[in-house]
Amino acid sequence: MIGAMAFSCSGCVIEGGNDPAPQPTPTPSVDAPQIYMLATKDGSVGQTYSAPQGMSGVQWFREALTSDRTRTPITDASATTYVARAEDIGTRLVTVGVMNGQRVVASALAVVLDIPILLESFDTTSGFTATNEALLASRSAVAQGSGAVEIQGTGSRLGGPGLSKSDIGYHDPAKFGTIAQFVDLGWDPIYHTVTAFDLTLTRGSQEFRAKTPLLEPLYQTPQPLFYGSMWGSIHSSEIEGLQSAGAGRFGVTNSVITQVPHAPRVSVDALVARAGGRPTIVIGFDDILRTQYTDAFPYMQARNVKGGFHIAPGKIGGPSRLTLAQLREMYNAGWDCYLNGSYDDDLMTTRPTLAAALAELQKVRDWAQANGMTRGNDFCCYPNGRYQDSPFRPRSFSAKTNGTRIATMSDTSGIQPGMLVGGYNVPVGTTVVSVDSPTQITLSENVIAQVKTFNFTDLSSEFSYTKLPLALKAAGYKMARTTQGKGSWLSRFGITDRGGVVTPANATSNMSLDELKSLVDVAILRGETLEFYLHGIYETGTGQTDSAKFRGLIDYIVARRDAGQLDVLTKTELWMRDGNSSLPI
């Protein structure tokens, strides 16, 4: 695939947020368009890179990742395609040739990486044993190979479901680097009450486990969703004793930490080592505050760092806000134009219906497109990070059924007719018909004789649980950013649900500079993607970032970029590189 972007503005502009008549767009003064060259899968060794269509006289180069960007010609590479080799690892591939009579340069967004090591394919349940009364089943592949393994909880209060396999082969942990595993938690708001997913490597009685779960919510927004597909990753040096354990045979254990009713269906696939991607930083700005133009933009532009701004058209040109001319200048300098979730920066969840919220987001998109700022319009944010408005969910830790529609429990407080009932062996779609007493309810379906944990969920709200993220996904939005993030995530093998419609991002305002730097260090160590978001550059004020911290963070990122340790990309560039990439084994 080939992608090309011109950092320019075309079409019409609309000044302010009240939809006045369009005005002609001035011709911007910009550099020649940047031509990006993409690769198959993740661009690692063995993957195919293609020169832009129509390029002749092609010559391939290896480009250094350091600031000098020294190019070394590949003597035997002059075809229109090139398969990455081991000698290319740690460089960026570049083609130089002629298009339309002019000499042009096309650069890959990917950096050539080594091929991952497959530790376990999870193609079948053979060799696996269930833990904590879980049920195991084979299912179609979700990331790699011919299949995956599904773990189903059975309502056990001993802990969440899990699996183990005593022998996944002979491996040398000194070569592991970053370890990653693909997990699909599903999107069922009733049963998929997962709070964490953990990975342990074993050798006999020895256990090698990180101090924190492999996967947990990466954002702190109230009632964080933890659904969908995702890659969990950790560097082997973060697991005590693993790198020094020496080569030998290993086993694997996965455990799922859940809430009531402890009956999720979780699919696991593709445990791989040497999985780290190109460390990447994304920088975004909220609320279109004027200091983003007066302070942040010139400081970043002088250091060749691009970012992105989220537009709320109703705020443009207001007090202490950016003007359209300022936004246009930033856009023409290569910044992305992302969408605020609403026209005036109000919560999406305050709209009367889900359809109304989506229509308003489309209005924001229409405004951006009418003003010629089309790049970045597939990416949005949830104002204040709110993507759901879910009511309290009653639970019972010992609901007793006897093969009829009657269920008894110690307390029926909060349970209402019409609520959906979740529990192991409870037929899907079962609801509460009536609350008969403080200890008894009647259900819409018979449930076998058992004592299990139940939850009771009201899905009548337009914005309950997963509805808004799934609606954005169905509407074609690629990434929808949350707030109050807690770190970085792996995007090398594709941008999954966690990096997509519930994208984590880290606020610079509520962390110290040292804490922000440590996040960058972890992203470099693991080969992950890390997003920072800012509001205004002010010395004081809730949610604001002072200039010393802002400049210190940018300087830290730039120093590591110039040393070849990371890339700084817009979301458009990130998606071009990783959005549809996949595991190459």
TrEMBL record:
InterPro entries: Glyco_hydro/deAcase_b/a-brl. It comes from the Bacteria. It comes from Sphingomonas yabuuchiae. One of its GO terms (biological process) is carbohydrate metabolic process. This is Polysaccharide deacetylase family protein.
